[in-house]
Amino acid sequence: MANGVTLESLRQSLIRQEDTIIFSLIERARFPTNSPTYNESYVSSPTFSGSLVHFVVKETEALQAKAGRYANPEEHPFFPNNLPPSVVPPYNFTEVLHPPAALININKDIWDMYFKKLLQLFAAPGDDGNYAATAASDLVCLQALSRRIHYGKLVAEVKFRESPQEFEPAIRAKDRDALMKLLTFESVEEAVKKRVAKKAMVFGQEVTLNNNDNKGKYKVDPSVVSLLYGDWIIPLTKRVEVEYLLRRLD
Ligand SMILES: C=C(O[C@@H]1C=C(C(=O)O)C=C[C@H]1O)C(=O)O
Q1: Rounded (10°) angle between helices 152-162 and 234-246
Q2: What is the pLDDT of residue 169?
Q3: What does the DSSP 8-state code read for residue 46?
Q4: 131-180 pLDDT per residue, tens
C-alpha cells in the first residue's frame, strides 16, 4: 500500500485510540450529569446563545483552529462555520484520501449520539457545580470519538485500494447495503467489543497497594463501553466508510 498505510496499521491505530476513548470516558465519569452544562438558559452572553458545552466547544475549536488543528485531515470540527484562520504554516500531511473526503463530517450525529444516548449511560445523576470542567471533559470525549469515527475514511480508502474491482460496481450503483456488506468484518467487530470491555476493567479498576480486589466496581461500566462501541461507535465508523466509498469514484 502506498504511503505505508495498511489495514493492519490502521487497525493498530484504532486499538490505540480505544485507550484514549476509554480514559476520556473515565475522566468524564468523575463528574455527575451536571445538567446546567447543557441548559441553554444557564448562559447569559450578549454575543452567544446556547448551552455552556456548546460555548466551550465552539470557543475551544476557534482557538485550536488558530493553532492549526484542522489543517490535519484527521481532525473534524463540531462547529466548522466561521472558524478563524491558522496562525501557523501548513504542515505537509501525506495525502492518502480521495479529495471529496473533505466533505464528510458527521460530527452533528456524533454530538447528538453523545448527548442524547451515551452520557446518561455512564455519568451518574447529580450536580456538583463543576460545569466548566464537565464541558471541557465532554469536549475531550467528543474529539476522541470524532477522530475514531472519521478514521473510517482511511479504512475505506485502504479497503478500496486492496480490491477496487470488488467495490466499483456497488459504488456506481450507489448501493449502500452492498458497500456495507463488503466493508464489514464481523470477527474484527466482536474482538473490538470484547477488548474494550477488558480495557475498561483494567483502566477503570481501583489500584491499591494491598490487594487488587475490585469487588466488581469500575470507574466506567465495562459492559457500557462494549455497548457504546457495538451500538454507536462501530456503526458510525461504518457509515463514514460508506459515505467515503460513495464518493470514491467522483
Ligand atoms: C474499521 C473497520 O471496518 C469495520 C468497522 C469496524 C470498527 O468500527 O471497529 C470493525 C470491522 C469492520 O466491520 C475495520 O475493518 O477494521
Answers
A1: 50
A2: 98
A3: S
A4: 999 999 999 999 999 999 999 999 999 999 999 999 999 999 999 999 99
Question: Which ipTM value was assigned to this complex?
Answer: 0.99
Task: Evaluate if residue 2 carries a pLDDT over 60.
Answer: no
Length of the chain: 250
- 189, 236, 239, 241, best to mutate for ligand 1 pocket (most atoms within 8 Å of CB): 189
Question: What b/e readout covers 34-49, taking b as 16+ CB neighbours within 10 angstroms?
Answer: beebbeeeebeeeeee
Cβ atoms 79, 57 nearer than 8 A: yes
Nearest CA to ligand 1 atom 8: 234
Q: Which three cell numbers stand for residue 44?
A: 447569559
Kindly report whether the global pTM for this prediction surpasses the value 0.80: yes
d(C-alpha 201, C-alpha 196), whole Å: 9
pLDDT at 243 over 60: yes
Question: Residue 18: exposed, middle, or buried by beta-carbon count in 10 A (0-12, 13-18, 19+)?
Answer: buried
Any atom of ligand 1 within 6 Å of the Cβ of 192? yes
Could you give the 3-state DSSP secondary structure of residue 82? coil
Distance in Å, CA 234 to ligand 1 centroid? 7
